[in-house]
Protein backbone atom coordinates (compact mmCIF):
# COMPACT_ATOMS: atom_id res chain seq x y z
CA UNK A 1 0.00 0.00 0.00
CA UNK A 2 2.83 2.38 0.89
CA UNK A 3 4.55 1.89 -2.48
CA UNK A 4 1.22 2.24 -4.30
CA UNK A 5 0.73 5.54 -2.49
CA UNK A 6 4.09 6.75 -3.72
CA UNK A 7 3.51 5.59 -7.29
CA UNK A 8 0.11 7.29 -7.53
CA UNK A 9 1.21 10.56 -5.97
CA UNK A 10 4.49 10.80 -7.87
CA UNK A 11 2.47 11.38 -11.04
CA UNK A 12 0.91 14.50 -9.54
CA UNK A 13 4.04 16.46 -8.69
CA UNK A 14 6.26 17.95 -11.35
CA UNK A 15 9.49 17.75 -9.40
CA UNK A 16 8.79 14.13 -8.57
CA UNK A 17 8.01 13.22 -12.18
CA UNK A 18 11.62 13.89 -13.11
CA UNK A 19 12.93 11.69 -10.32
CA UNK A 20 13.95 8.45 -12.01
CA UNK A 21 15.88 5.60 -10.48
CA UNK A 22 18.51 3.29 -11.84
CA UNK A 23 20.59 0.42 -10.52
CA UNK A 24 21.94 1.25 -7.05
CA UNK A 25 20.91 4.88 -7.15
CA UNK A 26 21.03 6.37 -3.67
CA UNK A 27 19.50 9.73 -2.78
CA UNK A 28 19.27 11.23 0.68
CA UNK A 29 16.84 13.95 1.75
CA UNK A 30 18.04 15.80 4.82
CA UNK A 31 18.71 18.97 6.76
CA UNK A 32 22.37 19.55 7.62
CA UNK A 33 21.78 20.64 11.24
CA UNK A 34 19.63 17.63 12.05
CA UNK A 35 21.27 15.10 14.36
CA UNK A 36 19.25 12.40 12.61
CA UNK A 37 20.46 13.52 9.19
CA UNK A 38 24.07 13.31 10.37
CA UNK A 39 23.64 9.73 11.58
CA UNK A 40 22.77 8.62 8.08
CA UNK A 41 25.56 10.59 6.42
CA UNK A 42 28.13 9.13 8.83
CA UNK A 43 26.88 5.60 8.13
CA UNK A 44 27.03 6.15 4.37
CA UNK A 45 30.56 7.55 4.71
CA UNK A 46 31.69 4.61 6.85
CA UNK A 47 30.43 2.26 4.13
CA UNK A 48 31.85 4.31 1.28
CA UNK A 49 28.47 4.61 -0.42
CA UNK A 50 28.11 7.25 -3.13
CA UNK A 51 24.85 9.18 -3.04
CA UNK A 52 23.11 12.38 -4.03
CA UNK A 53 22.29 14.69 -1.13
CA UNK A 54 19.26 16.97 -1.31
CA UNK A 55 18.93 19.62 1.40
CA UNK A 56 15.38 20.22 2.61
CA UNK A 57 14.04 23.59 3.73
CA UNK A 58 12.25 22.49 6.89
CA UNK A 59 11.54 26.03 8.09
CA UNK A 60 9.56 27.20 5.08
CA UNK A 61 8.35 24.73 2.43
CA UNK A 62 9.08 21.00 2.38
CA UNK A 63 9.75 19.57 -1.05
CA UNK A 64 7.17 17.58 -2.98
CA UNK A 65 9.63 14.69 -3.07
CA UNK A 66 9.88 14.60 0.72
CA UNK A 67 6.09 14.65 1.12
CA UNK A 68 5.77 11.78 -1.34
CA UNK A 69 8.62 9.68 0.02
CA UNK A 70 7.66 10.15 3.68
CA UNK A 71 3.91 10.83 3.62
CA UNK A 72 3.38 9.61 7.20
CA UNK A 73 5.82 11.78 9.19
CA UNK A 74 6.92 14.24 6.47
CA UNK A 75 10.33 14.43 8.13
CA UNK A 76 13.98 13.95 7.24
CA UNK A 77 16.10 11.99 6.91
CA UNK A 78 14.84 9.83 4.08
CA UNK A 79 17.08 7.46 2.16
CA UNK A 80 15.85 6.58 -1.31
CA UNK A 81 17.50 3.44 -2.63
CA UNK A 82 16.58 2.57 -6.20
CA UNK A 83 13.36 4.55 -5.83
CA UNK A 84 12.29 2.94 -2.56
CA UNK A 85 12.20 5.14 0.58
CA UNK A 86 13.51 4.18 4.01
CA UNK A 87 12.60 6.51 6.89
CA UNK A 88 13.72 7.09 10.50
CA UNK A 89 17.45 7.51 11.10
CA UNK A 90 18.26 4.41 13.17
CA UNK A 91 16.24 2.22 10.81
CA UNK A 92 18.12 3.76 7.89
CA UNK A 93 21.50 3.13 9.54
CA UNK A 94 20.59 -0.53 10.09
CA UNK A 95 19.40 -0.76 6.48
CA UNK A 96 22.72 0.66 5.26
CA UNK A 97 24.60 -1.87 7.38
CA UNK A 98 22.56 -4.76 5.96
CA UNK A 99 22.63 -3.71 2.30
CA UNK A 100 26.32 -2.79 2.14
CA UNK A 101 27.38 -5.61 4.45
CA UNK A 102 30.71 -6.25 2.73
CA UNK A 103 32.03 -2.92 4.01
CA UNK A 104 32.82 -1.82 7.59
CA UNK A 105 30.21 -3.41 9.90
CA UNK A 106 28.26 -0.96 12.05
CA UNK A 107 26.48 -3.56 14.20
CA UNK A 108 28.05 -6.67 15.78
CA UNK A 109 27.17 -10.13 14.47
CA UNK A 110 26.43 -11.56 17.92
CA UNK A 111 22.64 -11.31 18.57
CA UNK A 112 23.01 -10.18 22.19
CA UNK A 113 25.58 -7.53 21.31
CA UNK A 114 23.34 -6.32 18.48
CA UNK A 115 20.44 -6.04 20.93
CA UNK A 116 22.62 -4.06 23.34
CA UNK A 117 23.72 -1.71 20.56
CA UNK A 118 20.08 -1.09 19.62
CA UNK A 119 19.16 -0.56 23.28
CA UNK A 120 21.70 2.23 23.77
CA UNK A 121 20.83 3.84 20.46
CA UNK A 122 17.20 3.90 21.60
CA UNK A 123 18.37 5.33 24.95
CA UNK A 124 19.97 8.23 23.06
CA UNK A 125 16.68 9.03 21.32
CA UNK A 126 14.48 8.76 24.39
CA UNK A 127 16.76 9.86 27.21
CA UNK A 128 19.05 12.38 25.53
CA UNK A 129 17.21 13.86 22.56
CA UNK A 130 13.74 14.03 24.10
CA UNK A 131 15.01 15.51 27.38
CA UNK A 132 17.43 17.96 25.72
CA UNK A 133 14.70 19.15 23.36
CA UNK A 134 12.63 20.24 26.35
CA UNK A 135 15.59 22.37 27.45
CA UNK A 136 16.36 24.15 24.19
CA UNK A 137 12.70 24.69 23.31
CA UNK A 138 11.65 25.72 26.84
CA UNK A 139 11.76 29.00 28.71
CA UNK A 140 15.05 29.89 30.37
CA UNK A 141 15.01 29.05 34.06
CA UNK A 142 12.04 26.69 33.78
CA UNK A 143 13.78 23.40 33.01
CA UNK A 144 15.81 22.55 36.09
CA UNK A 145 14.22 19.10 36.26
CA UNK A 146 15.08 18.36 32.63
CA UNK A 147 18.64 19.61 33.11
CA UNK A 148 19.18 17.25 36.04
CA UNK A 149 17.66 14.37 34.08
CA UNK A 150 19.88 15.05 31.06
CA UNK A 151 23.02 15.18 33.21
CA UNK A 152 22.01 11.87 34.83
CA UNK A 153 21.43 10.24 31.46
CA UNK A 154 24.76 11.45 30.07
CA UNK A 155 26.45 10.01 33.15
CA UNK A 156 24.74 6.70 32.40
CA UNK A 157 26.22 6.74 28.90
CA UNK A 158 29.60 7.57 30.38
CA UNK A 159 29.33 4.48 32.60
CA UNK A 160 28.54 2.41 29.51
CA UNK A 161 31.60 3.89 27.80
CA UNK A 162 33.85 3.12 30.77
CA UNK A 163 37.47 2.87 29.62
CA UNK A 164 36.57 1.73 26.10
CA UNK A 165 37.44 4.00 23.17
CA UNK A 166 33.88 3.82 21.83
CA UNK A 167 30.39 3.05 23.10
CA UNK A 168 30.40 0.09 20.72
CA UNK A 169 33.65 -1.21 22.22
CA UNK A 170 37.03 -1.20 20.53
CA UNK A 171 35.59 -0.03 17.22
CA UNK A 172 33.28 2.82 16.21
CA UNK A 173 29.74 1.47 15.76
CA UNK A 174 25.97 1.80 15.96
CA UNK A 175 25.56 3.47 19.39
CA UNK A 176 28.39 5.88 18.58
CA UNK A 177 26.66 6.87 15.35
CA UNK A 178 23.45 7.38 17.34
CA UNK A 179 25.04 9.75 19.85
CA UNK A 180 27.87 11.62 18.14
CA UNK A 181 25.62 14.02 16.15
CA UNK A 182 24.45 15.45 19.49
CA UNK A 183 28.01 16.24 20.58
CA UNK A 184 28.10 19.66 18.92
CA UNK A 185 24.68 20.43 20.39
CA UNK A 186 26.05 20.08 23.93
CA UNK A 187 27.25 23.70 24.05
CA UNK A 188 23.77 24.96 23.12
CA UNK A 189 22.19 22.77 25.80
CA UNK A 190 24.73 24.18 28.26
CA UNK A 191 24.04 27.81 27.30
CA UNK A 192 20.27 27.47 27.59
CA UNK A 193 20.37 25.11 30.58
CA UNK A 194 23.24 26.85 32.40
CA UNK A 195 25.53 23.89 33.10
CA UNK A 196 28.80 22.45 31.75
CA UNK A 197 28.92 18.89 30.34
CA UNK A 198 32.70 18.67 30.86
CA UNK A 199 32.22 18.91 34.63
CA UNK A 200 29.73 16.04 34.80
CA UNK A 201 30.86 13.80 31.94
CA UNK A 202 34.55 14.37 31.08
CA UNK A 203 34.95 10.90 29.55
CA UNK A 204 32.05 11.56 27.22
CA UNK A 205 33.67 14.78 26.05
CA UNK A 206 36.91 12.88 25.41
CA UNK A 207 34.91 10.25 23.49
CA UNK A 208 33.39 12.99 21.32
CA UNK A 209 36.81 14.39 20.46
CA UNK A 210 37.98 10.87 19.60
CA UNK A 211 35.03 10.38 17.26
CA UNK A 212 35.78 13.71 15.57
CA UNK A 213 39.13 12.30 14.50
CA UNK A 214 37.21 10.11 12.06
CA UNK A 215 36.69 11.73 8.67
CA UNK A 216 33.19 10.26 8.42
CA UNK A 217 32.26 12.28 11.53
CA UNK A 218 34.24 15.51 11.14
CA UNK A 219 33.05 15.98 7.56
CA UNK A 220 29.36 16.07 8.44
CA UNK A 221 28.96 17.02 12.10
CA UNK A 222 27.31 20.42 12.57
CA UNK A 223 29.03 23.66 13.50
CA UNK A 224 28.36 24.77 17.11
CA UNK A 225 27.81 28.42 16.21
CA UNK A 226 25.38 27.58 13.43
CA UNK A 227 23.47 25.25 15.77
CA UNK A 228 23.17 27.97 18.41
CA UNK A 229 21.99 30.54 15.86
CA UNK A 230 19.39 28.10 14.55
CA UNK A 231 18.15 27.38 18.08
CA UNK A 232 17.90 31.11 18.86
CA UNK A 233 15.91 31.64 15.66
CA UNK A 234 13.63 28.72 16.49
CA UNK A 235 13.10 29.89 20.08
CA UNK A 236 12.05 33.33 18.86
CA UNK A 237 9.71 31.73 16.35
CA UNK A 238 7.90 29.72 19.04
CA UNK A 239 7.95 32.67 21.47
CA UNK A 240 10.14 31.36 24.30
CA UNK A 241 13.01 33.83 23.97
Task: Give an overview in words.
This protein is of the alpha+beta class and 241 residues long. 56% of the residues lie in helices and 7% in strands. The protein is built from 13 helices and four strands. Strands 2-1-3-4 form a four-stranded mixed β-sheet, covered by helices on one side. Strand 1, helix 3 (35-47) and strand 2 (52-55) form a beta-alpha-beta unit. Helix 6 packs antiparallel against helix 7 and helix 7 crosses helix 11 (202-212). The longest helix has 26 residues, at 111-136.
Question: Could you write a compact summary of the structure shown?
Answer:
With 241 residues, this protein is α+β, with helices and mostly antiparallel strands.
* Number of contiguous helices: 13
Listing every helix as H and every strand as E from the N terminus to the C terminus, the arrangement reads HHEHEHEEHHHHHHHHH
**Rg computed from alpha carbons, rounded to a whole number of angstroms:** 19 Å
Mean pLDDT value: 89
The structure class reads alpha+beta
Q: In what order do the strands lie side by side in the largest sheet?
A: 2-1-3-4
What are its keywords?
241 residues, alpha+beta, 4-stranded mixed sheet, 13 helices, 4 strands, disordered N terminus
